[in-house]
Automatic annotation (TrEMBL), chain A:
The lineage of its organism: Bacteria, Bacillati, Bacillota, Bacilli, Bacillales. It is found in: Cell membrane. It is a multi-pass membrane protein. Pfam families: LrgB. PANTHER family: HOLIN-LIKE PROTEIN CIDB, PUTATIVE SEROTONIN TRANSPORTER. InterPro entries: CidB/LrgB (IPR007300). The chain crosses the membrane at residues 6-21, 28-47, 59-76, 88-111, 144-164, 199-224. Keywords: Cell membrane, Membrane, Transmembrane, Transmembrane helix. It comes from the Bacteria. This is LrgB family protein. One of its GO terms (cellular component) is plasma membrane.
Length: 225, 146
């Protein structure tokens, strides 16, 4: 019963907020933000634990598997542009990974957080399942890593477009690499609005960042912590 | 039964079947990951596998395009359960928690900005190099000024 309420309720809210976003296309109105806030607030108000909600939430989360596989489709459609810009894309992805790791490391060192929080935050730019696995490998707290991963994603989806605009980052390749490798799948949700080229470069960046990050994150910890 | 309805029904069935095919790739990916013990999600392996099959024409894109298009269209929906998980971490509302969140935000913004700018520069050089290669091939290389 609870499964059905959660699944139908979330789909209902999602449809409602998608319609609302079409009428008021403000960055803070993206359905991911509005649906999440309303769901989270409802759980808190009605005192429903997250684990109860996840009995149904898991149904939706399970669809993330085939949905990630589905990204092979835009990738295939845009294979010409990817092959053409392979050097830029690959170097951009490695740059993003290194910049992300170094900046978060320096800032958290400066703030002076305990090591477990540091290890929890380092994999923030990797897509959720990989980020959580890497977090576990290096000694972080995986569910909390998922939260940081989501924040990194939100930043890409909400503030990302402003950064691209003011940085005059206007090619499909650079947009896709920047947002895809720093903000993974949640960032892709926004890249979709730019076009299929951005989306496909972004999904390639997300995938390669996950693969490269799975090796680079533990190496970084080994070298610097 | 009117024709329009039949078409919609056919499309719905096609989408469902194609999502089934994508799911098969997902489970193959999960199988490979657990068999080889690689620390990567099965979905990413499934994505790479499907992309390879499509690229080498071992699978027709028609078999997945409607299902894939549909799933990508509603991608947001599948992230919501994970993001709602934030409510389980009230300690994020402490001073340290908020500072870490700010650091994550700043780090992500810097990564997007610097990566975007640098990638754009590398991209321009990559394109220029290719164009130069083409000009030289055509025997016009000696005419270029820069």
């Amino acid at each position: 019963m609870i499964e059905l309420i959660v699944v139908l309720g979330t789909i209902g809210l999602f449809i409602l907020f998608t319609k609302l976003y079409q009428r008021f296309p403000h960055p803070l109105m993206i359905p991911l933000v509005t649906t999440t806030i309303v769901s989270a607030v409802s759980l808190l108000v009605f005192n429903i634990p997250y684990s109860t909600y996840m009995v149904g939430g898991e149904w939706l989360q399970k669809m993330l598997g085939p949905a990630v596989v589905a990204l092979a489709y835009p990738l295939y459609n845009q294979r010409a542009i990817i092959m053409k810009y392979k050097v830029s894309i690959l170097s951009g992805i490695i740059l993003a990974m290194v910049i992300g790791l170094v900046t978060i490391f320096v800032m958290l060192k400066w703030i002076g957080v305990k090591e477990s929080w540091m290890l929890t935050a380092l994999p923030k730019s990797l897509t959720t399942p990989v980020g959580m696995q890497v977090s576990e490998t290096i000694g972080g707290i995986p569910p909390l890593t998922a939260v940081f991963v989501m924040i990194a994603g939100f930043v890409g989806a909400i503030i990302g477009p402003f950064v691209l605009k003011y940085g005059k980052i206007d090619s499909a390749v650079s947009r896709g690499v920047a947002v895809g490798s720093a903000s993974h799948g949640v960032g892709l949700v926004k890249l979709r609005e730019y076009g299929e080229q951005e989306l496909s470069v972004g999904s390639l960046s997300m995938g390669l960042t996950a693969i490269i990050g799975a090796f680079l994150c533990p190496l970084f910890v080994y070298l610097f912590l | 039964m009117n024709e329009n309805f039949t078409m919609i029904l056919m499309r719905v069935v096609r989408i469902i079947v194609q999502i089934g095919i994508l799911n098969i790739f997902y489970y193959i990916g999960v199988g490979i990951v657990s068999y080889l013990h690689i620390p990567l999600p099965g979905s990413v392996i499934g994505l790479l596998l499907l992309a390879l099959l499509l690229n080498f024409k071992l699978m027709k894109v028609e078999y997945i395009q409607d299902g894939a298009g549909f799933l990508i269209g509603v991608l947001t929906l599948f992230f919501i359960p994970a993001t709602v998980g934030i409510i389980d971490y009230p300690e994020l509302m402490s001073t340290t928690g908020l500072l870490i969140i700010l650091a994550v935000i700043a780090s992500t913004l810097i990564a997007i900005y610097v990566t975007g700018i640098l990638t754009q520069l590398i991209e321009k050089r990559e394109v220029a190099k290719k164009e130069q290669a083409v000009t030289i091939e055509e025997g016009k290389g000696e005419l270029s000024v820069d």
